[in-house]
Each structure stands twice: as C-alpha cells, then as structure tokens.
Amino acid sequence: MNIELSAEATEYGAAALRAFESAGGDALIESAERDPGGRDKLVAPVFDGLGAWELEPRKNGDELEAAAALCRSAGHWAVPYPVAERLSRPTDLDVDGLLVVADRNPAAAVADLDLLWAAVTLTGQRAVATARSTGESPRTSAFAFVAPLELESLDAGGAADVALGLVLPCWTLLGMLDRALALTRTHVLLREQFGRPLAQLQGVQFQLTDAEVERSGVEVLAKYALWSVQAGHDEAVDDALALRLAAIEAADVVFRVAHQLHGATGFCDETTLSWLSRYSLPLRRLPLGLSATGAALTARLGRRGLTGLFNDEAVAP
User: Full-prediction pTM beyond 0.85?
Assistant: First the structure.
C-alpha cells in the first residue's frame, strides 16, 4: 500500500496554488462575497486553464490524486467555489457535481451557481438537487454561500458516490488547515511580547505543536481514505466518515489555536485568518457536524471497528 500522492499530482497541486495566487489569491473570496452571483465567472478561467473539469477521478487513480491535490490548493486560498463537489460528479448522471446531504434539511454551499446537482445521503439514496435562493448576503447568512436544497428522488444506487463525495471536501478543509497554521506561524514570529517574538514563548510553542499534530494526522488519514476509495474497498465509506470526523475535530483545534494566538485581530476582515475561518464553516458543519458524523460512523461500524492502516490486507506487499 502506498498512500503518498504521485509526483505528478503533487506538481499539479503546486501549479494550482500558483494559478489561484495569480488570479487574485486572498482577494478571490472578498470579491465573491461582494458579488456572489459572479463567483462562477471569477474562477472559471483558472479551472479552465488547469483542465480541472477534464479530470476523471472515478476512472483513473492518478487523476483522483490530482483532484485531491487541486482541492487542497483551493482550500489554501479559500477559493469560493465547490471544487470538490464538482470533481465528485457521478459518471452515470447528466449533472455538474455531487452533494452529500443530510436526511433532514439538506443544504450545501452552492448558492448563486447555475449548475445541475445530484445529491446522495449517507445511506446511498440519490436525488436531483435544486438550490433554493435565499436572498441573503454571505456576510449575514449563518453559513457563507449555503442554500437549502429541494430533492427529487432518483434511486438507491449511490453507495459508491458517498465515499468520494465525503473524502474530496476533506482535502479542501485540509488545505484550509495548512494555511491557518502557516498564517499563525508567521504571526507569532513577527509579533513581539515582553521584548521577544511570541514564537519563543513555551506556551505558544505547545499550542502550535498541538495544532500541527492534529493537522498532520488529518493529512495521513486523507491520503489513506483516498487510497481506500481508489482501491474500491468495501470499507471506503467507513474510512471517509472517519476522515471527516478527524478533520472536523482538527479544524476545531487548529482554528481555536490560530484565533487565540492572533488575538482580536484574528476576527477582523483585515486578517486573512478571519476569512479562512468563516468560510471553513460549511465544510465543517455540512452535511453533518461533529456529533452527527460521530454518530453516523458509530452506527455503520457497530462492534466491528475500523479496518485501519495496519490490517493484514493493507500492509500486504
């Protein structure tokens, strides 16, 4: 088992990072908030240049890894677009993307986008999804760009859709955690207290270490869950839910530490962390939050437990 991304996928992710930076970087999310209806046109040239929608992650393992790398790069810049959801699109339906939704009050961060969506619940029930307009500004809504969905039932054949639809958004969230920690490290190196940089204070070092342990753990689980999807394991949905649970827990720790070490400025729009934190909320709370994700994983596993990284099949040559 090799869970590391290929060199080609890693380079593709790096190219995507540069492309998003050249297109505006942190200004992308600010522009999208001022004009939510224009966010598709705002980022379309970047995705066209990267050939993003030509990737077929369901058919090719290398392209699945490239899709994950693209999602991570999009998360780094908090790109205001459902990248992972579009890359997860089913191949047997004429739709633009896939949304994993809750059984009750389905919603997704797809407001103001003229796209066709399929939706799937954790039990594999598929539907055609239509986003209802809320008329709310991303600034004042509870979750940025989130819209309630109307579902028209299709079939119960979406079991294979669930794992990919859960895993790729976690790669987007991983990119956000990467950036949050990078911003915080820079801040504590530059900011001084008692005549020396904050980074030299032992308490600050402990907090950053805790946050990095959480982030690096999610990175390993994200690679494993991606491999599980690629290998077509029966346990892929279990692995995807375990990844999501770990990613939400890690996000709580990373953003808490980042905000604490930034102080009050971390909640101001002049600070990139504020935008990153606010726009991570849909990924952390939809389709299910921390407790509901844990409950869903527990219900699936029962008493058998996760297969995990170190079972006999996973480590076999």
Answer: yes
CATH for 165: 1.20.140.10
Q: Do 97 and 88 meet the contact criterion of CB atoms below 8 Å apart?
A: yes
What are the backbone dihedrals phi and psi of residue 41, each rounded to the nearest 5 degrees, phi first?
A: -65, -30
Contact between residue 215 and residue 177 where contact means Cβ atoms under 8 Å apart? yes
Name, in order, each residue with C-beta under 8 angstroms of 163's C-beta and a sequence gap of 6 or more.
225, 228, 229, 236, 237, 239, 240
Q: Which residue has the tokens 């490239």?
A: 66
List CB contacts of 199: < 8 A, sequence separation 6 or more: 185, 188, 189, 205
Please report whether residue 74 resides in a domain. no
The total of structural domains in the chain comes to 1
Identity of the residue numbered 92 = D
For 272, the token pair is 């990139």
Which structural domain range is residue 192 located in?
A: 161-315
Cα–Cα distances in angstroms (integers) from residue 38 to residues 44, 101, 111, 168, in the given order: 10, 25, 11, 24
What is the dihedral angle through the alpha carbons of 236, 237, 242, 244, rounded to the nearest 10 degrees? 120
**Are the beta carbons of 240 and 167 closer than 8 angstroms?**
yes
Cα(167)–Cα(205) distance, rounded to whole angstroms? 31
Could you read off the pLDDT of 280-298 as tens digits, one per residue? 999 999 999 999 999 999 9
